[in-house]
């Protein structure tokens, strides 16, 4: 009886120990599996970070900054008045009646309202380009009329285009700073007083095409040397040039 009871107790103890070992083994297996999963997850995260592009130390520019901005419209210069001209129709184009440009470098347009500028007129005792140091004339111009640039005391140089045929009376009267004037072939007439009062003008070469030089085109006492067809004329013999070209 005692021996049977001992056997039952020992069997129960073995079963209990076996169950405990089984539980521990299951727990250890779960712990190892959890550790393995954690290790695997950690490796995946590192791999993802390793493949990710490196962060830039500079913040990316916005699309608004990357797109080129349109230039701001230029504001008109209040110190540069817009040139305006009064004009009238003339044979083959228009004739400017007065200037409206007060700049120092004046360019008179070739056309106004799509019509060629063929003439420039002036008026006695009126100065229409008071500050002009240089004046560029239209390539279409035929006539520089009476008083056109009279009183332009700041004007220093001018070129007469080959299209010009006639320079009117007192056209450059009292242009006291005018020291250089260039003529082109095509000019046929220079009228009375055209360059009177041009005290800075020392040398002029007239084109061979010139046919008429009216008396007093230059001041008789002006210190200017005029060359025409290879011969030079000074105040002492300028009368010979007038006699040669004056249409009596």
Which helices and strands occur, and which strands form pairs?
Layout: H1 2-51, H2 63-66, E1 86-90, E2 93-98, E3 105-107, E4 111-112, E5 115-120, E6 134-136, E7 143-144, E8 157-159, E9 166-167, E10 180-182, E11 189-190, E12 203-206, E13 212-213, E14 225-228, E15 231-233, H3 238-245
Parallel strand pairs: 2-5, 3-6, 5-7, 6-8, 7-9, 8-10, 9-11, 11-13, 12-14
Antiparallel strand pairs: 1-2, 4-5, 14-15
Characterization of the model:
- There is one protein chain.
- Helix content is 25%, strand content 20%.
- It is an alpha/beta fold and 248 residues long.
- The protein has a domain at 86-245: Ribonuclease Inhibitor (Leucine-rich repeat, LRR (right-handed beta-alpha superhelix)), CATH 3.80.10.10.
- Strands 1, 2, 4, 5, 7, 9, 11 and 13 form an 8-stranded mixed β-sheet that branches. It has a 4-stranded parallel β-sheet with strand order 3-6-8-10, with no helix packed on it.
- A hairpin with a 2-residue loop joins strand 1 (86-90) and strand 2.
- The radius of gyration is 51 Å and the shape is globular.
- Residues 1-64 and 76-81 have low confidence and may be disordered.
